[in-house]
Amino acid sequence: MKKILITRKLIKESEDKASKTFNPIFNTNDELYSQSKVIEMSQGCDGILSSLTDKLDKETIDKLPDTIKIISNFAVGFGNIDLDAAKKRGITVTNTPEVLSDATAEIGVLLILGACRRAAEGIESAREGGWKWSADYLIGKQLTGTRLGILGMGRIGQKIAKIAKSLGMIIHYHNRSKLNEEKADGAVYHESIKSLFSVSDVLSICCPATKETENMINKETVEFFPKGAVITNVARGDIVDDEALIDALNRRKIYAVGLDVYKNEPNLNPGYLKIKSAFILPHLGSATKDTRIAMANLAIDNINEFFDTGKCLNKVN
Ligand code: NAP
Hints:
Elements: E1 3-6, H1 12-21, E2 23-25, H2 35-41, E3 47-50, H3 58-62, E4 70-73, H4 83-88, E5 92-94, H5 101-116, H6 119-128, E6 147-151, H7 155-166, E7 170-174, H8 181-184, E8 188-189, H9 193-198, E9 202-205, E10 229-233, H10 242-250, E11 254-259, H11 270-273, E12 279-280, H12 289-309
Parallel strand pairs: 1-2, 1-3, 3-4, 4-5, 6-7, 6-9, 7-8, 9-10, 10-11, 11-12
The structure holds NADP nicotinamide-adenine-dinucleotide phosphate (NAP).
């Protein structure tokens, strides 16, 4: 049986499945392993089932033992892994697409609703007490008839678009390539982010974190939005330059934000905490039991498929 280091604790059903198919090394305390600990723990292993909290950069990958043939990431995003460094060492990297799209799209829509309808301020007032209903109390932005820009209209972006459409929003998007008619489902394509942002009353960031998308929301691009736009991010924190966004919020250029992901998680930029309207969640995108089990099962299946066939459908490098 192949020996696999599983860097984070999984839901019991998933750990049971892993035990049936390979010889797993579990992380029973769910301790966050340092890079050197991952290197140490992977000695004698054939593969690693990693999570987005493991920073597998070039330096770490270069020090992994030669026996490691696969890194199966327990996430659809793989910005935490240096794909080129893994490729150079002959290590296959895989991810868990599709199984988490519904759950993540739900959080994507929650961010839009929470930011537009001032849920953060509402929750705080309801808990504190002393509020009173009045005609102009906590007036927010209604979604009906507003334009939703989707940056990264892939699996999750398309699901958010479908739900947003049912709420009466008009969908615009930008990808590097235009979708076919069926996938676009009436959404308007924009060739540039400038063009997309200029029509986005609300933006939903759904693209991966890559060198190209890093800090795509920045001092310059934030000015492309209509005044009073809402920016939400369900993808990755690295896509946003926090200082620029916080400054735009303070200047009221941007009305509100809905964020699930941050640079340097869990240490989000303290500037967000000072903004009462910021609707912020602690990276909950895929956090439902069914989805987490499906993700772990797929990460386990990816390892088995790789060792059985030498290939894997969900290989990303
Ligand atoms: P996907 O199906 O691969 O979709 C990504 C989309 O982004 C594609 O439409 C792609 O289109 C576009 N894109 C890629 N690079 C781009 C660029 N440089 N400029 C503009 N568009 C670009 O991925 P997915 O399954 O929807 O997941 C998207 C991301 O969500 C993941 O990478 C992950 O980081 C994040 N995520 C977060 C959570 C959470 O817990 N909050 C959960 C799951 C996923 P083109 O290739 O045509 O550009």
